[in-house]
Design a protein that fits this description.
Elements (H helix, E strand, L loop, with lengths): L7 H13 L4 E5 L5 H12 L8 H4 L1 H5 L1 H4 L5 E8 L17 E2 L8 H20 L3 E4 L7 H8 L3 E2 L5 E2 L7 E8 L18 H5 L17 H7 L6 H7 L2 E3 L3 H4 L19 H4 L3 H5 L3 H7 L10 H13 L7 H6 L6 H14 L2 H11 L6 H7 L1
Parallel strand pairs: 3-8
Antiparallel strand pairs: 1-2, 2-7, 4-7, 5-6
Helix pairs in contact: 15-17, 17-19
Length: 374
Amino acid sequence: MTEKSASAATKSEIVKLAMDAGFNSVKITGPEGLEKNAEYFSLFLNESRHGEMKWLEEKADRRKSPLNLWPDVKSIIMLGMNYGPKNNPLEFLEYKNSGNISVYAKGKDYHDIVKKRLKQIARHIHRQYDEQVKVFVDTAPVLEKPLAAKSGIGWQGKHTNLVSREFGSWLFIGSIFTTMEIAPDSPEKDHCGSCQSCIDICPTNAFPAPYQLDARRCISYLTIEYKGHIAEEFRRPIGNRIYGCDDCLSVCPWNKYASHTKEMLYHPRIELEHPRLDELAKLDDQSFRKIFSGSPIKRVGRDFFIRNVMIAIGNSENKSYIPLLISKLDEPNPLIRAMAVWAIKELVNVDQFNELKNKYAESDPDQDVRREWQ
């Protein structure tokens, strides 16, 4: 540390400020030492495991080192905010007539909450110590999970997500880059041991090896980031998951130490706890925007969301949805029509399917939809 290094008292003050702002874990690390993580990231890109997430390619060099993003950074304050659910999300997979939404998306958008509080802390550091600061939460080219592991907040489990001894799988991560030099904390060790529950539970086999993810097979990617026709091999495994997937997080044994978040903004909105599939399927663009205002779900867009709902209905085994599905054959978006056809095929008998096929198949202008009728 240099003469400009922050004192232990200053570090303690920053940590206390962050905890008072609602963060549950605060650790410090430096910008160096991510070379191994950069290699893993390059492998991820070279194998095209990022799918259609082209922004990961476009700023790959910046992401490989914080110094590439901001050469003046001396210290990185890593902050974790607990969003632990009250119940195990795996329980919701049994409710086939309800849409299963990932825990993080049932409350207010964490991007807005975390960033607002990061800025609050960063402003104090700038004013009090005359140091430069930049804040990041999930939207900038930063290797946040490796930095969090290096800082000591947790470690990257075999599912590639962060695991904490105190909070299990349920931490939102934010970072404050600063020109202030602060004594770093020790990295956290990997405590996964021989366990690979997260790999074994994955419905779509998205982990080609421990600590490696193929996003193209991940239900979170397929239901949120992917903007095409979801391949048939993934539709039944998706079940009732209409936005994201928490299976690999939920099954982690370290969640026995997790606690229900005290942050009310992360508590599930009542209408998103067990939303009925038939009601979701009827949302038009205006009602979709209204019900998901302030939620990250809004970003996926109404049509892609309804595409997901069609798959969940196809997995529901509920034949009362058939008239609703037939009405969706007139949707303007072929993604919705295609998944409605698949869902119908799952719920009706062969004669009923052929009758509908004769009525709708040839007149559909989209080849992917016509292919679903085959």
